[in-house]
Amino acid sequence: MKKRSILAWLLSFAMLCSCFSAGMLPVTAKETGEVEFPSSLAPGNDGNIHDPSIFYDQASGYYYVYSTGIGETLTVVRTKDPNMRGWERLNFDTSALITDEIIAITRVDNIWAPDLVKVGEEYRLYYSCSQSGRGDSCIALATSDRPDGGFTFQGIVVQSTQSSWGRTGNAIDPCIVTEEGTGDQYMTWGSFGAGIFLQKLTADGFLDPSSPAVNIARRTGAETGVEGPYIRYNPDTGYYYLFVSYGNLSNNYNVRVARSKSITGPYLDDQGRNMATDSTGSLDGDIGYKLSSGSITATAGKPGFGCSATSSFGARRAGR
After folding, report:
1. Rounded mean pLDDT, 272-298
2. Which backbone phi and psi does 155 adopt, to 5 degrees?
3. Sign (positive/negative) of CA torsion 76, 292, 195, 131?
4. H helix intervals, the chain
5. CA–CA dist 319, 308 (Å, integer)
6. What are φ and ψ of residue 108, in 5° steps?
7. Residue 303: is the preceding peptide bond cis (ω within 30°)?
């Protein structure tokens, strides 16, 4: 019985586009075929994966997927198979990741849209905490000497409030990207509100106050926002590619891409239009090259909507 699902599709595209980063994945990675899931991650099970971020650990040879699980908690799976088969679900202890400081900001104990990077011998897990449709959010950092657990909370990287997110952006959906040539790291984040921001990080992984945040994509409106940023550098073209999701995941979600020679932008689409220009028109006229869109489906006579999100293209977001 075939066990291919949307996760297989997400992972195959994620592998392809993650290769924009030199050394991100080994060259032996091949096209994904049928993907074998643990029973707890089978499509339709409550352990299903959302907001996936793929990390290849050269030290252990494992591919890791860090994600938002159903119930809005951290779900981590791994495999050594470059064809993305034989996933193992880890018992990942998150008790140390949700602190009183986070609950005071967000009033929730969930974990959304994690992203993991390795700096030297330190594994850095960035994760967001929030409520759907709210701006009381934060992105936190935890570190470990291994990718499969043992993470210690280090602090809040950025936070937003219900009154400020229309100006400063909603502090969720982190993605860490390294600048070619300098090795400097940046974090991009944002969901609806004032759009997508990018800011340089300090050596210890927090925002650099001497380098102001840049608004690299903007699109206002309750049903027409922009979220889930992911940036990849392609050494073959010399461009940084910004992937984002437009719209509302319940009806008109779709993926857009733009590129820039500079990590801080401006990010331009195929028509030379700047993603930082507020775009609130019809979907067909929006700024940003459309890569994919959601679809209307029907199951047992009931209408449904299939989400298309940035994770489908080596970015990350799915079902958020």
Report:
1. 72
2. 150, 175
3. negative
4. 6-18, 100-106, 165-168
5. 8
6. -140, 165
7. no
CA 200, CA 124: separation in Å to the nearest integer? 16
Contact between residue 192 and residue 170 where contact means Cβ atoms under 8 Å apart? yes
Phi-psi category of 181—alpha, beta or left, where left has phi over 0 and alpha has psi -120 to 50? left
Measured at the CA of 155, the angle between CA 154 and CA 161, to 5 degrees, comes to: 160
Distances from the Cα of 315 to the Cα of 107, 114, 212, 230, angstroms:
28, 12, 24, 5
Both tokens assigned to 42: 């089978």
Instruction: Summarize pLDDT for 128-187 with one digit per residue, the tens.
Output: 999 887 889 999 999 999 999 999 999 999 999 988 887 888 999 999 999 999 999 999
CA 299 from centre of chain: 29
Vertex 315 angle, CA 156 and 131, to 5°: 45
Q: pLDDT band at 28, cuts 50/70/90? A: very low
Each residue's pLDDT tens digit, 155-171: 999 999 988 887 888 99
- The pLDDT value given to residue 281: 52
| Mean pLDDT of the region 33-45 | 50
> What domains lie within the chain, and their CATH numbers?
91-313 (2.115.10.20)
